Amino acid sequence: MKNDDFYPVAQRGMALILSLIFLTIVTLVSLSSMQGAMTQGSMALNQQDYSVALQAAEAALQEAERVLERGNKPPATWTSYTADSASATIEGQYQMPQQTGEVIGSRVTSQGVETLEVLYRLEARGSGRLTDTSVRLEAFYVRVE
């Protein structure tokens, strides 16, 4: 008795071909999901770096407002600081804001004393941990002199 009748000729090797096709499909799906996960990780890193740059710029504006609140006239140009020299714990760097003072007017108080109001426009730039991430903020500050 021959065993050849048990295995038809047309079906030899078909399981191997179907397995290879299924393996190819699974590989393509897993590569696609891996690429999506890498893209999401990159987006999260960029958002985190933007947040660091924003915090650094806000720290620069707060430092500039503290200088103005003390009553000192700010220098024409402020130097660049790292956030480690400030009281905040920020990993990014910030540059002290550029400021321009402009007299917006004067008024007489209830005691009859004329006060001068100066409007300062502050521009701060903060950078994140990556060199190409930066945030610019602008604030207005009125000081009575």
The share of residues in extended strands comes to 25-35%
Kindly report the average pLDDT value. 75
Any low-confidence stretches, pLDDT <50, length ≥5?
79-90
Anisotropy-based shape = rod-shaped
The count of β-strands is 4
Rg value: 33 Å
Q: Tell me the strand order in the biggest sheet.
A: 1-2-3-4
Please, how many helices? 1
How many domains? Answer: 1
- For the record, give the distance between the C-alpha atoms at the N and C termini, rounded to a whole number: 115 Å
Largest sheet data? 4 strands, antiparallel
Q: How much helix is in the residues?
A: 25-40%
The structural class is alpha+beta
**What is the N-to-C order of secondary-structure elements (H for helix, E for strand)?**
HEEEE
Task: Describe the model.
With 145 residues, the chain is of the alpha+beta class. It has one domain. It contains 1 helix and 4 strands. It has a 4-stranded antiparallel sheet, with helices on one face. Strand 2 and strand 3 form a beta hairpin. The protein is rod-shaped and about 120 Å long.
State the gist of this model.
With 145 residues, the chain is an alpha+beta fold.
